[in-house]
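Collaborator request, handled under Task 6.
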Amino acid sequence: MNGSQTTQAPATGHVGGGEDLVEQYGIQPIPLADRASTLGAVAVIFFNICLNPGAIMRAGLSVCAGLPYLWAVGVQVLGTFSAAIFCIVLARIGCDYGIPGQVATRSAFGVMGARYFCSLTRVLASIYNFAFQNLVGCLSIQEFVRLTTGHTVSLTVFAVLFGCAQALVGIFGFRVLKNLSGLATPIKVGIIFFLMTRLPLGSLSLTAQPMTGVIVWPSWLLIATWVDVYASVWMTLAPDAADFTRHMKSRRGLYLTMTLSIIAGSLLASAFGALGPALSAGKDANVLSVVMDGGAGFRTNCLVILLVVFDNWTINALNVYTSGLSLCNLLPRISRLFATIIVAVLGLTLSMLGNALSDLVQFHAWIGTIFAPVTGVLIADYLVVRRQALDVPALYTRHGQYWYTVGFNPRAIAAVAVGVVVFRFLPESTLRPLACFLIVALCYLALCLAARRGAGQGGLADGLHAPR
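Structure tokens returned to the collaborator:
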């Protein structure tokens, strides 16, 4: 069989036609005949993953933390791409086999390990990310209502209404999500460039610290801290990168397309987001609030809200969609539709609590602790051990080659455990997610090599490659 074709596997979710309004495919492979996505759709999706309310807000928060404008932009692009490259590598799995990323993690962690470790942690991270993105958008809507009516409406009201609208797109599935992203992207980009013209860019200092107006070289610790934040965010996406490419028939041009879209999206998000505190002397991390508080006028404020709506719709729909597939892998008996609804409800609940905006750096340190080791194992297993070839039916089979020991791969679990400990003891100045990734990848390969030699076989390759 050609490596780019899908091997039929036992269905583990509700199966249906690819043209249904609500996507019926769960975590089973999508047949080649039902794959209709294009490189353009993938480019738009990953561009939107970079250009989202959270990324824009994080750029502003990094300036408030002490980074000059130009440094904040560079750090976000560097931190994003340093980990996004792992997503680019793992996205190939979707094109080659039509399976979601969480199913692919079974090859490295075992059928049960992928379920109770990879998918569970991904669902928890997704719930937080949904709540964070939702609240960031709702803050701008709340400010708009205050400016236009003079009344302050409860953030909870906006969180529920706006969150439901975002979740609905993810519930419909990939085709609706793809179409929304294609519609929203040119609108978002156009509005951002227009809003930038409404700001006093002539007073912007590219290298001065905004709170003091003094040109500074940021400390390496400050730079490393924010690179860690962006790298941690993208490492949570690495296990799910295949979710957005499994609808494609060919991987030709995939790497270049994803690279360009990720760099462009992160550059625009950081360049726009860092303007808020850079122009307000660090008083406001939200550039959209700076635009509206500057007396921009009703029409401009309406454009701000339109940007917020489309921005949140695209990113949180993507978030809910992938986390629904993760929950399907965790609980195989439920459908993708029901799993997506569960994740959306949990994200909305956290939004109403209003705590997702606090302890941002601490949360990303936690997810870095988990996802940096996981990404290290996945990349080492896929590129070196498996040589980019998977046995798809075995991924869905109990007691097959990916069952390992009662469904868990002890080498992967051991390498992740080492990574969690190492991450905690690494100094913050060492770019911990990336350093931990490298250490865990080498540790996993060493364990695999030791196991092969112990069994009298000399080499990392497991001999289970699919024919090419």
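The cover message to the collaborator said: "The longest strand covers residues 208-209. Strands lie at 208-209, 214-215. Please let us know whether this matches your experimental observations."
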